[in-house]
């Protein structure tokens, strides 16, 4: 493998671009491999979760090397610690490969050289200028916590024109975004942390000037329970104008008294090109807005994740646009809490809308009642939706408290339906709430699943900690029918969203 040509090696290393350990191992093979890996490793050197940047002295040495002699003399006079190693020649022109600036991590590296606030400020100014000067083009910029208006640097306009991804927060002064909007007009991915209670008109302006915005995320992290001004209005009015290009929308709203997000509910139906729609919390639709959703066709929608709403909201979205849907995800218990007296009707309708409109579905969350009608419709769904890879199932009887015998009977019915379904692509099932399988029913299911796919099974029921169940599960692990089995009383410990977003 060490004799593979550079193009093939590059393609292999590209697949490892998020795996720093593997890339660092490849660096040690020989110089040829090292020369191939370095440009990949340094394209975005701040993206590795397994690196502790706060004590990464080697990065401080490399960046310090680039500082001009007069700047070195100045910061040395300020008692900033520049390593002696920073005077030695470096093997590669590392910053020429860099396409990314991450303010938080660069500031962390700067703190290695000095702990004094003023000295850190001086180094920040020079380090940022250095990156703007040396990076041939800037693709990724995480500017959270920034204190310097880098768009005033001589080379900034040219570098910022190529920016594709921007991460920021609403605490940054609007004037900064006004400055960025003069150069950054081709951002494709914009992620905003909302940490300030006041509207940020600069962010709205930045959104407004974008010509190809495809990916937008908004995450609330506000400490205030009540706002005097709506911080969302101008942002989402600007976003509405990007409906022709936007294909990814993710919003997380905290509950804030006096804010109901009516505007986003009104304009949501206009984002007709969405491929991914994720609404994480506290976003409630009125009946009038539901009617508008039923009229909107999302032909390209592939992933739908809406929390804290009734099932009829999700049903309305998929009714006219589910042909491409591959993933429908939500936390079932949050959905059930919103249902009150309409759960049985809405869950039945939801199952029907899935098999009527979503033939390509692969990942699916379903809460339903243990009624004969629900089981019949669920079996119909499994016969039509043959691409299913993962199921999250919650049985919840809202009408009465079931006996243990009735719960076991429902579990047996469900397992027989799964056996008859012949889902050869199914790799994972997550069972929650009133799911109990007798030892005999579970063994019969696993035995008849033998010629299908390996299964990973997750559940919240403590019965599977009993010795006889453990022995059964281990037996079918050994012969390769069960790939993984996990039990947790804390449902939150098992990711509802299947780690696929």
Q: What coarse outline follows from CA principal-axis ratios?
A: globular
Q: What structural class should be given to the helix and strand makeup?
A: alpha/beta
| Arrangement of strands in the largest sheet | 1-2-3-4-5-6-7-8-9-10-11-12-13-14
- How much of the sequence lies in strands comes to 5-15%
CA-CA gap between termini: 33 Å
Average pLDDT, rounded to a whole number, is 84
Largest sheet, in brief, is: 14 strands, parallel
Cα-based radius of gyration, to the nearest Å: 27 Å
Low-confidence stretches: none
Helix share, percent: 40-55%
Number of helices: 20
Number of strands: 14
Question: Can you characterise this structure?
Answer:
The protein has a domain at 164-280. Helices cover 41% and strands 14% of the residues. It is built from 20 helices and 14 strands. It has helices at residues 6-14, 20-27, 31-41, 57-65, 69-77, 103-113, 117-134, 156-160, 174-180, 201-208, 233-240, 262-267, 287-295, 311-319, 332-339, 343-357, 372-384, 404-421, 439-448, 467-478; strands spanning 100-102, 140-142, 165-169, 189-194, 215-220, 248-252, 276-279, 303-306, 327-329, 363-368, 390-395, 428-433, 455-459, 482-487. It has a 14-stranded parallel sheet. α1 (6-14) packs across α3, α9 (174-180) packs parallel to α10 and α16 (343-357) packs parallel to α17. The radius of gyration is 27 Å and the shape is globular. It starts with 5 loop residues before the first helix and ends in a 14-residue tail after the last strand.
């Amino acid at each position: 493998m060490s004799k593979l040509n550079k193009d093939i090696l590059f393609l292999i290393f590209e697949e490892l671009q998020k795996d720093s350990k593997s890339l660092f191992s490849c660096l040690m093979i020989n110089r040829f491999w090292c020369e191939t890996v370095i440009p990949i490793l340094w394209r975005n050197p701040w993206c590795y979760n397994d690196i502790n940047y706060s004590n990464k002295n080697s990065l401080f040495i490399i960046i310090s090397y680039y500082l001009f002699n007069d700047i070195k003399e100045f910061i040395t006079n300020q008692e900033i610690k520049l390593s002696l190693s920073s005077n030695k020649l470096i093997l590669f022109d590392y910053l020429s490969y860099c396409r990314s600036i991450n303010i938080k991590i660069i500031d962390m590296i700067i703190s290695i050289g000095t702990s004094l606030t003023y000295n850190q400020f001086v180094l920040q100014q020079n380090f940022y200028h250095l990156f703007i000067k040396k990076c041939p083009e800037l693709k990724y910029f995480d500017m959270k916590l920034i204190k310097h208006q880098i768009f005033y640097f001589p080379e900034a306009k040219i570098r910022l024109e190529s920016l594709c991804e921007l991460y920021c927060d609403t605490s940054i002064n609007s004037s900064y975004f006004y400055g960025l909007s003069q150069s950054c007009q081709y951002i494709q991915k914009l992620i905003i942390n909302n940490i300030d209670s006041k509207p940020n008109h600069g962010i709205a302006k930045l959104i407004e000037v974008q010509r190809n915005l495809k990916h937008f995320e908004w995450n609330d992290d506000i400490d205030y329970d009540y706002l005097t001004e709506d911080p969302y209005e101008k942002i989402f009015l600007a976003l509405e104008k990007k409906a022709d290009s936007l294909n990814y929308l993710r919003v997380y709203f905290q509950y804030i008294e006096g804010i109901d997000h009516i505007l986003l509910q009104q304009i949501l139906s206009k984002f007709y090109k969405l491929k991914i729609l994720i609404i994480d919390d506290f976003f409630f639709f009125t009946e009038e807005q539901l009617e508008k959703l039923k009229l909107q066709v999302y032909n390209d929608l592939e992933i739908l994740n809406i929390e804290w709403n009734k099932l009829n909201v999700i049903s309305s979205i998929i009714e006219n646009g589910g042909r491409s849907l591959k993933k429908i995800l939500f936390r079932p218990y949050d959905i059930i809490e919103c249902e009150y007296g309409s759960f049985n009707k809405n869950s039945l309708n939801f199952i029907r809308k899935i098999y009527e409109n979503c033939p390509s579905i692969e990942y699916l969350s379903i809460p339903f009642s243990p009624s004969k009608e629900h089981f019949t419709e669920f079996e119909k769904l499994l016969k039509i939706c043959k691409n299913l890879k993962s199921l999250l199932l919650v049985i919840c009887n809202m009408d009465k408290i079931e006996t243990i015998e009735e719960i076991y009977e429902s579990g047996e019915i469900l397992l027989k339906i799964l056996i008859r379904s012949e889902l050869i692509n199914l790799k994972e099932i997550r069972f929650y709430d009133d799911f109990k399988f007798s030892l005999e029913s579970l063994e019969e299911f696993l035995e008849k699943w033998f010629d299908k796919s390996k299964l990973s099974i997750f559940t919240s029921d403590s019965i599977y900690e009993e010795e006889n169940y453990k022995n059964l599960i281990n037996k079918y692990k050994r012969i390769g029918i069960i790939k993984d089995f996990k039990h947790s009383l804390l449902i939150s410990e098992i990711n509802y969203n299947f780690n696929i977003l």
